[in-house]
Amino acid sequence: MSTHEARLQALRDQLKRDRLDGFVVPICDEHMSEYVGEYAQRLAWLTGFQGSAGVAAVLPEAAAIFTDGRYTLQVREQVNGAQWQYQDVPQTSVAEWLSEHASDGGRIGYDPWLHTRAWVQQATRALAERGAALVAVETNPVDAVWPDQPAPSDAKLVVHDERYAGKSAGEKRQEIADWLQGRKADAVVLSALDSIAWTFNVRGQDVSHTPVALAYAVVHDDATADLYVATEKMADDVAQHLGNAVRVHDRAAFASDLAKLRGKTVVADPERAVSAIFSKLDKAGAKTLALREPTVLAKALKNPVEIAGHRAAQTRDGAALSRFLHWMSIEAPKGGLTELSAAAKLREFREATGLLKDLSFDTISGAGPNGAICHYKVDEASNRPIEIDSLYLVDSGGQYLDGTTDVTRTIPVGTPTAEMRDRFTRVLKGHIALARAIFPAGTRGSQLDTLARQYLWAVGLDYAHGTGHGVGSFLAVHEGPQRIAKSAGGQAGTEEPLHAGMILSNEPGYYKAHEYGIRIENLVLVVERDMAGAEAQPLGFETLTFAPIERRLIVTETLSPAERAWIDDYHAEVLRIVGPQLEGDAKVWLEAQCAPL
């Protein structure tokens, strides 16, 4: 099955054997992770789509792939339209499409370990209107026809030292126990991998670029816990770190052990726990409370040690990026660079710090028209030369023990057009407006999103992604619950109040299809501000990322005095923080880049 067409046919043949009239294939694992291990890349294997968010629906005579605005261009380049219908989310949904295309009386399969209970209920209702049924499968039919499916990682767990975590695992479990007692609950099921890593102060290598281990956990109201992880992943130092209050079991025992919670009041997170977990708890006779599990907000509110670690990580990462930008200023005009060679060089600069553990995601290295693909992932087939008189967009980050970074810069190679400079300046003005925002406690991300879009909206432009996402501490580069994005009917994160201690990205952009892309991204920390007469605690953002913003793309005369002052102040901080780490020509270059406008 060397072609995706053959793989689709093999799946259809398997569905016939399984007496199913369709099947739904998400990018997901048993933990509702955004980024998943190779074994769970079922959608990529089936369709060729390399994005991080998408779903496919396969019927005997039709198939569709569903992606949001970040992947509108990418999905059409990677997935064959002769076999797959392109469907745009949220304009439509898998449930809506199935209700229109499934056969009357059809049996549509789904893997209950890869979907939320809410999705199952929605799809069940939609199919019922068609006279069709949603059927949970015991064995995923994609796995049955994937002959060389990778095995899950067997990498060892490692201890995440308290000097980086800022709080012991025992303290965290006690806080969870107190939370449970306040809700008269006996236990909480943790299935999100970053929640488990954070709770137990452990890390792993089971998911590319996210230092987590495949595991489940149940934390009880007496602060003890059951941790389910493959036995070969445990080491003596991890067992000693976990202590006697944490009982370790094989990961394979998790599903059956949920029966032991019979008669208990158990919290399970409806956004993070898959449908199968709720079904197992219901079957066991547990009383299930569908609540957001308590680690989510606690993990987002960084403690002083984590904040200090982020600042240290950003300082070294900003120097690595600045060295790369200097290198690009010399090498790119010569010609000969490609998206892959530039991304490899940027990684070299980060590795030279001696502290890089991994990238925080696959570097988005987009030259010219590839920069217009928001979440573009370069490979040998798509690798494009970085040409003169074009824009190059690079979105990248590093994983360090003390912090996770994420930064985007847009680089002109040769002479940018007047349109490019105008669009860049509008994106910059939006970035500055958000960076300078002062807002009362209780403000949601959706209420701030317009600040970043206003200058694009003024000329009929926009971008099809959120403006900001949360970031973890040596954890997930995309971390909830906070976001800065358009409100989408209460979409998770956009209605989460921002609190001091949260870290988010500030990343407005503009993308001209088939021509170029622009994005300016820094990470910011929510902090308390002093304001005389304020009736609610004012909050604002402290910028954490320090690397020069390309001045050749700025139409300076369109900036207000306050915007010019922000740029000059920002570049002065870049020079103060990054400058001492550079030397020679690189430092001279940085000084020129950071000179007042």
What's the CATH topology name of the largest domain?
Creatine Amidinohydrolase
Q: Which range best describes the helical content: under 10%, 10-25%, 25-40%, 40-55%, 55-70% or over 70%? A: 25-40%
Q: What number is the mean pLDDT?
A: 95
Number of domains: 3
InterPro entries: Creatin/AminoP/Spt16_N, Creatinase/aminopeptidase-like, Creatinase_N, Pept_M24, Pept_M24B, Peptidase_M24_C, X-Pro_aminopeptidase_P
Keywords: Aminopeptidase, Hydrolase, Metal-binding, Protease
Enzyme class: hydrolase
Pfam families: Creatinase_N, Creatinase_N_2, Peptidase_M24, Peptidase_M24_C
Give me a quick take on this structure:
By secondary structure, the chain is of the alpha+beta class. The protein has 19 helices and 28 strands.
Q: Would you kindly provide a written description of the structure presented here, covering whatever features stand out?
A:
Residues 539-597 form the Peptidase M24 C-terminal domain. GO terms for molecular function: metal ion binding; metalloaminopeptidase activity. Residues 7-137 form the Creatinase N-terminal domain. The chain has three domains: 4-145, Creatine Amidinohydrolase, Chain A, domain 1; 158-295, Creatinase/prolidase N-terminal domain (Creatine Amidinohydrolase, Chain A, domain 1), CATH 3.40.350.10; 301-589, Creatinase/methionine aminopeptidase superfamily (Creatine Amidinohydrolase). The N and C termini lie far apart (58 Å). Helix content is 34%, strand content 20%. The protein is α+β, with helices and mostly antiparallel strands and 597 residues long. The chain is globular and about 65 Å long. The mean pLDDT is 95. α4 runs parallel beside α5 and α16 packs antiparallel against α17. Strands 4-3-2-1-5-6 form a six-stranded mixed β-sheet, with helices on both faces. The protein has 19 helices and 28 strands. β5, α5 (117-128) and β6 form a beta-alpha-beta unit.
